[in-house]
Amino acid sequence: MSPQTGVERLSMQVPGADAAHGRRVGELVAELLAPLVEPGIDAAALDRVKVELTAQPGESAETLAGRIASAIAFALSRAAVLEAGR
After folding, report:
1. Number of domains observed in the structure of the chain
2. d(Cα 46, Cα 22) in Å, to the nearest integer?
3. Tens digits of per-residue pLDDT, 14-57?
4. Phi and psi dihedrals of 76, rounded to 5?
5. Is residue 57 part of a domain?
6. Which residues neighbour 45 within 8 Å (Cβ) at sequence distance 6 or greater?
7. Number of C-alpha atoms within 13 angstroms, CB side, residue 40?
């Protein structure tokens, strides 16, 4: 059994969106992030991973969530590489 990587908390700000849209984006990010994060990434020392994206006009919740999930997965993979280099 390979080690798992977990996300304890996901906090997002989606300016210009109503609460329901923000919640939907958050739910989708959680769903989309799971298969993108490699099992066993040793990012336990990370307190926070911050990504900033600009929403595109008319962008759907699904598209925005996909871009956010990809950016988080990329940031976690970079953190794992940096940790391995220590």
Report:
1. 1
2. 25
3. 777 788 888 899 899 989 988 887 665 554 556 677 888 887 88
4. -65, -40
5. yes
6. 83
7. 4
